[in-house]
């Protein structure tokens, strides 16, 4: 999408807490590669959640995913664009799914980042099917959840 940074910023309000989350704490407003910057914003979130017991980590990520349907829908309506590139909450959740149950190290963080971005960008089947046929907040979230699950499987066998 060829929106100028000023045009993108004018569609959103960081003072709205829901949009602030949807925009990945503002990282989604970076005009070039907002999904990549949204995934980068997920790394500190992961580091905060990683020490939690496994079931608590998974429960928090599940709540973030479910709440993400509302968050992304709210922000998309504000922008009047379905799945606006600045909406990156889905990338944050997708990365957290990628890193579930994976030992924390700088290597795992980087490999997880690269694998999640790869699957999120190329969208192999069935991710592409979900991306094309699911709409609204659910549609925004589900392809990144699927990309996170595929990346997680790769990470699980690697680590």
Question: How would the blueprint of this fold be written?
Answer:
Elements: H1 5-11, H2 17-22, H3 34-49, H4 54-79, H5 89-98, H6 106-122, H7 127-133, H8 136-158
Helix pairs in contact: 3-5, 4-5, 4-8, 5-6, 5-8, 6-8, 7-8
Please tag this protein with its features:
globular, 70% helix, mainly alpha, 159 residues
Please, could you describe this protein's structure?
With 159 residues, the chain is mainly alpha-helical. 70% of the residues lie in helices and 0% in strands. It has 8 helices and no strands. It is globular, with a radius of gyration of 15 Å.
Would you list the SSEs in sequence order as H and E?
A: HHHHHHHH
Structural class: mainly alpha
What helical percentage do the residues reach? over 70%
* Ends distance: 36 Å
Strand content: under 5%
Tell me the radius of gyration: 15 Å
Arithmetic mean of pLDDT: 93
Counted by DSSP, the helix tally is 8
Task: Categorize the overall geometry.
Answer: globular
Please summarize the sheet with the most strands. Answer: none
Unreliable stretches (pLDDT < 50, length at least 5) are none
Report the strand count: 0
Summarize the structure.
This protein is mainly alpha-helical and 159 residues long. It has helices at 5-11, 17-22, 34-49, 54-79, 89-98, 106-122, 127-133, 136-158. The termini are far apart.
């Amino acid at each position: 999408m060829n929106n100028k940074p000023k045009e993108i910023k004018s569609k959103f309000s960081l003072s709205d807490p829901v949009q602030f989350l949807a925009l990945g704490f503002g990282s989604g407003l970076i005009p070039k590669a907002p999904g990549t910057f949204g995934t980068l914003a997920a790394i500190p979130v992961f580091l905060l959640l990683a020490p939690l017991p496994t079931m608590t980590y998974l429960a928090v990520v599940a709540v973030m995913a479910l709440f993400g349907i509302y968050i992304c829908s709210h922000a998309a309506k504000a922008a009047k664009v379905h799945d606006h590139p600045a909406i990156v909450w889905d990338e944050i959740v997708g990365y957290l799914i990628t890193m579930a149950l994976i030992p924390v190290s700088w290597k795992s963080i980087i490999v997880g980042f690269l694998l999640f971005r790869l699957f999120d960008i190329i969208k192999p089947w069935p991710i592409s099917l979900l991306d094309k046929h699911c709409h609204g907040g659910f549609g925004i979230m589900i392809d990144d959840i699927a990309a996170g699950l595929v990346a997680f499987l790769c990470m699980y066998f690697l680590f």
